[in-house]
Structure formats: C-alpha cells, structure tokens
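User: My collaborator sent over this chain with a note saying "see what the structure looks like." That's all I know about it. Can you take a look?
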Amino acid sequence: MLAESPTLKQQPQLWAQVACTTIELIQMLQQNHVDTDTAEALGAEKAQDSLLRQASGAVGAAFSDGDDGYAAKYAKLKYAAIVPTDYFPEVQDPRVFLGQQMGTLGSNAGALLNGIPGPQQQYIRQCCQQAGVNV
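Assistant: Without extra context I'll predict from the sequence alone. Here is the result:
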C-alpha cells in the first residue's frame, strides 16, 4: 500500500502515518513469532487434552436417557484443530518485502522518508539494505 497507492504517495503526512503503523505491525509480528514446530506441539497438546476430557466425559457430556439426542461434548469447537492459513504466501520476510516496495518508489522514497521520525526512518533504511535496495 505504501508503494502502490497514488493518493497515499501524494499526501506525505498520511504516508508517514501509514509507514509508522506498518513498522509497528512488522515489529509486533517479530516479537510474537511462534515457529511451526511450537505451534504443532501446542496443537497436539490441545488435541490430547481434548481426547482425555472426552474419554472422562468431562467435556460437557449430556446426561443420556437412552435417546440419541444432542450431546454437548461433541459441540465444543474450542477443542477443534486450528488450521493455519497464510494469506500472503509471497511475503516470506515482511522486512525484505517492505524494502523491496520502497525501492519501487524511486526518487519519491527519500522525500517520503524525511517525513517520518528518525527511528522509523532508520528501520526502513535497514529493511531496504536487507532487500538490496538503495533509497
């Protein structure tokens, strides 16, 4: 969005706000990163816990009067497996992607960068350096 929106590029103050928010998001994702192995281990642990609860009948099991009616223990979706979905598979590293997108701004990149605070400016320059882009 920083590199593709003509309206955003024409409004340096708005561009700076979106750039700062983008940087915050990237940093937040880096701080809260959970690798695939950890996520799978957590999922396996939840599945095992769910099976143990179901076997013990402690997961909201309905009292049975002999009819095959509704049983709450089968409706507990909080124990269902979560399938991770990558909505942007083309973005392997957000920092490199940000740097590459900044490179598409050409001569406008320097002027737009001057409108954001120093630490965020430095962060974007590092992203550009990682992507092999000069701004």
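A starting point for your reply to your collaborator: Residues 99 and 124 are 7 Å apart (CA to CA).
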